[in-house]
Each structure stands twice: as structure tokens, then as C-alpha cells.
Amino acid sequence: MEPYASVQQVYAGAMVFTRIAAMVMTMPAIGDEAVPVRIRLSFALLLTFTLTPVVMPVLPAPPVELGEMAVHVVREAFIGLMIGAVMRIFMASLTVAGEIISIQSTLSFAQTSAPGLIESSTTIGTFIGLIGLMLIFTTNLHHLFLGAMVNSYNIFPYGASASVSDSGQLAIRTLSEAFRMGVQLSAPVLVLALVFNVALGIAARIMPQFQVFFVASPLMVLLTLALLSLSLGAIGMVWVNGYGGLLKNFAGVSGG
User: Fold this and answer.
1) Which of 107, 124, 139, 233 has the fewest Cβ atoms within 10 Å of its own Cβ atom?
2) Burial class (CB in 10 A: 0-12, 13-18, 19+), 3
3) Are 229 and 101 in contact (CB under 8 A)?
4) Element (H or E) spanning 114, and its range?
5) Which residues contact 199 (CB under 8 A, 6 or more apart)?
6) Tens digits of per-residue pLDDT, 220-230?
7) Which residues contact 79 (CB under 8 A, 6 or more apart)?
């Protein structure tokens, strides 16, 4: 390799590729299973060639012992997986919102494949999840993915210890925030279901012979889908703002 690159350059490229590849393989959109592995690794390699000259000045000389180098590789992979996993965890808010809306609309039995989220999800959950992936690219949030890769060397400098407990707390806090936002996104349907079920209960008590189920089910589906179509823009805006705030923390971007 000496005629093409020095030992320091090869070592720096390998360490950068370890962290970047781990992030690319786990982050949403780019790291979805629908994207072939070769494409993801090629993208990570391209980013490595781009970021290595920027990061190389902060990297120390290659270690002499193989065990120390192995420790560095494991640490870099762990940091990349942790950042990418936290970015993906927040996508669960769309799944939570879709599941709640499906349950309230009696459409939870309709299961379809949800690429990038979970293997099987409700049809409404898959639809909302795909809208979230589309919003990531249309609002240029994927640019913050690249910023998070570069800024990760400021948050977790090379050679600094990565606390497993702190990473676990970050994942738990992100998951709780995703669940809270999922409930918030489905709030209009929850309110509609509460009012609708109370009205059905009153009607059933007043008219015991009235076939409530046969009338309520199609009417609930119609009202839920109508309300979802009206509130879809607000759902997307609230989710993009929340996800953008999370990504800006990793990318080191200030402001709204």
C-alpha cells in the first residue's frame, strides 16, 4: 500500500469506515433492508473517502499491538451502531401512531409489510411509515444524517470511552419520546373514538334492540379515515419537527 497511501492513511480510513459503515447499516431510510447490502457498503465506502481527510488530523498513530487495534475497532463499531440505532428508534413513533389508529378504526387485522420499520405492520401504520420516509428526503433531513456522521467525532472523539450505560439511557429516553409522539400523532383519532364509543354506549342503553355493531363498525372506519386524511398534514409537520430536533442534536446544528 505504500506506493498509494501511507500506513497512517490506511489506518485512518479503516477506522472511519468502521464507524460510518455501522451507522449506514442501522440508520433509517439508507439502512433499510430494502436497500441491498452492497449498495449500503458502497455508500459507506464513498463517505469514508470523503470524510477521512477531514478526520485524519484528529486520529493518533496506528497502535503497535493488535489487541489495542481490535479494541479501537470494537469501540468505533459500537459508537456507529449506537448513533444509527437511536436515529432508527425514533421512527417507531410512526408505528405507534399507525397501530393506535388501526385499533381505534377496527382495521388492525389488515397486516402488510412495512419496509424500514418492522417486518409486519398494519396497513395504516405502513402508510404513515412510508410518508415519514418520504418526508425525510423531501425536507432534506437526510443531510443531517451526514452531519451526524461528521459531528460524531466531536461528540465521541476517537479513543474516548463510550459508556454502555449512557448509551442505554439515551436509547430508553429516545424510545419513550417516540412513544409519546406516537400517542400525540394519533390524538385526533383517540378523541374521535372516545366520543364515538360514548355515543354508542348511550344509544345501546336507550335502544337495546338496536344493532350497534353493524352500524358502528363501517361508520367508525369512515370517520377515522376521513379524520386521518384531514390531519395527515399536521401529523407530518409535527413528526418532522420532532425528528429534526433529534437529528440536529447529533449533527451539531443549532436553531429551529
Assistant:
1) 233
2) exposed
3) no
4) strand 111-114
5) none
6) 888 888 988 89
7) 19, 22, 152, 156, 162
Closest CA to 192 of 233, 232, 231, 227: 227
156 to 19, 40, 75, 78: CA distances (angstroms): 11, 23, 10, 11
pTM score of the predicted model: 0.79
Residue 114 has pLDDT above 60, yes or no: no
pLDDT at 255 over 60: no
Indicate the length of the chain as a whole number. 256
Each residue's pLDDT tens digit, 185-201: 999 998 988 888 888 88
Residue of 81, 85, 75, 112 lying closest to 28 (CA atoms): 85
Grid cell locating 185 = 400523532
Angle at 95 between CA 39 and CA 81, to 5 degrees: 45
